Amino acid sequence: MKMLDNRGLEPPQPMMRTLAALTKMKDDEVLTIINDRRPMFLYEQLEELGYKQRTEQQSDGSFKIEIFR
């Protein structure tokens, strides 16, 4: 599992970092990202690329998103 903390970054940095990390992953790996906001535009990109995701809001208001095939 790979972890990417995108908190504190201004858009579009979180999405760019996430998509770059996905290009380096194997199909059976899971990428977990932490974002300040729910990444609505990222969800569209993930769907187009054939990824699934699970989003969970954290107690501090951030969002943990697990991305997998």
UniProtKB/TrEMBL annotation:
Residues covered by the DUF2249 domain: 4-68
Q: Which Gene3D superfamilies match?
A: TusA-like domain
Q: Which InterPro entries match?
A: DUF2249 (IPR018720), TusA-like_sf (IPR036868)
Q: What's this protein's name?
A: DUF2249 domain-containing protein
Q: Which organism is it from?
A: Neobacillus paridis
Organism lineage string: Bacteria, Bacillati, Bacillota, Bacilli, Bacillales
